[in-house]
Specification:
Length: 288
């Protein structure tokens, strides 16, 4: 696995070739990403009454923290403006959005230590995003809102790119997850896992913790085994993320290897066209 730094856009085909070979791409200082950061920080300032977002949990009870952060996450998740800015980010990276589909665009908030845990989109354990979607052509986009360090970032496990990891993809059910989700408070965690999980211990000896600057954008194949680094710092981690599928990759059969996913149903219905918002399952007349 190489971490390739880019100051310019590359084509959809070039990006796919690099990502589906297991590389990571870091697009440096995208102007639209800087706008995205400004927009997100303004939402945080509004909901947090001007408190410093990275240390706000020191000043709020757990319940108040979860309520306020949850309100920010709901506003962000439902914001058309946020999506449109990030679509500009994709274009600045070379994505032909006329052929691109996305699933959702959340704000992830990872508090430090364990006192304020409980949010829906907080730290997430080892996983491949393709375990849930079952689409090997899927790509991930990830970017921080504030500065990172090695103990407050995203981790990759390149040794598992071609090495299987035992998991529960054969048993995990999206329908069961959604049924449980309906009974939970907004933006709160639930007992049923939001995605399939490993059933064996991950070897941490080959971990790569990727630290990029606010304004940078990380792209990687959704087949990469990755996780949130447990936040042992004194600052909250805020990041945004989006998963995409490109029509040209599906048409050409460009994809990452499937080394351990036992699920069989591609979740095309999760993805909508960037511009028309038509479902990918409708566009390709597939059952999902």
């Amino acid at each position: 696995m190489d971490i390739i730094q880019l100051d310019q856009a590359i084509s959809d085909a070039e990006r796919a070739a690099l990502l589906f070979a297991g590389n990571l791409l870091v697009y440096r200082q995208r102007p639209a990403m800087l706008r995205m950061i400004e927009y997100t920080r303004e939402l945080l300032a509004d909901e947090l009454s001007g408190l410093d977002p990275v240390t706000v949990q020191e000043h709020l009870s757990r319940e108040d923290f979860l309520n306020r952060v949850g309100a920010v996450q709901t506003r962000f998740r439902t914001s058309e403006a946020a999506k449109l800015i990030f679509f500009d980010v994709l274009r600045e990276c070379g994505v032909t959005t006329e052929q691109c589909y996305y699933d959702h665009f959340p704000l992830r908030v990872v508090p430090f230590d364990t006192t304020h845990n409980g949010a829906h989109r907080a730290a997430i354990g080892h996983h491949r995003d393709t375990w849930g979607s079952n689409v090997q052509s899927q790509q991930n986009w990830w970017a921080p809102v504030f500065s990172l360090d090695a103990e407050r970032t995203i981790a990759f496990y390149p040794d598992y790119w071609e090495k299987p990891l035992a998991n529960n993809t054969a048993e995990w059910s999206f329908e069961a997850y959604m049924a449980t989700r309906k009974t939970a408070q907004p933006e709160r965690g639930i007992a049923y896992p939001s995605a399939p999980q490993p059933t064996e211990t991950v070897d941490e000896s080959g971990v790569v913790k990727v630290v990029i600057e606010p304004g940078d954008v990380l792209a990687f194949s959704s087949a990469h085994l990755h996780a949130s680094v447990p936040n042992t710092t004194d600052a909250i981690r805020y990041s945004v993320e989006m998963r995409t599928i490109h029509q040209s990759d599906l048409a050409a059969g460009r994809m990452a290897p499937n080394v351990d996913n036992a699920a069989t149903t591609p979740m095309y219905r999760w993805f909508r066209h960037v511009e028309s918002r038509q479902s990918l399952s409708q566009s390709f007349s597939v059952e999902s």
